[in-house]
Amino acid sequence: MNRIVSIQEHTHPNPEQVERVVVAQSEQTALVVWHLLPGQEIAAHRHPHGQDTWVVISGEAEYLLGGGETRMIKAGDLAIAAPGQTHGARNRGAVPFVFASVVAPSDAGFEVTEP
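User: That's the sequence. What structure does it adopt?
Assistant: C-alpha cells below.
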C-alpha cells in the first residue's frame, strides 16, 4: 500500500451519482474519498458496529444528524458519527464537496435511516 496518497487523484466528479473511491482498506479501517457535486447527497444512514469520521477537504455541505437536525460542515471540519449515529450529507452549495471518510472497523455495517 502506498503510504502517501494524492487526494486529487481520487476525486473524480460524476454528474450521474456521488463518487466514492476506496483508497485503502484493512480489517481495522476503511478510508474512502467522496466527491459530491452541487445538488448531490449521501442518504441518511448509520454504521451499527463502528465509527465513521469525516475530514472535510473542500466545499461545504449540510450534515445530517438524524431526527431532522442538520449542521453545516466545511473545509477543515471533522464530523464524527459514533456507532449507530445517523449521518449523511447534502451539497446545497455551488462548488463540489470533497471529504475523506475513515470507518473503523471496516465491517461496521450499513443501514439506511430517516434523516
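The two ends are 36 Å apart (CA to CA).
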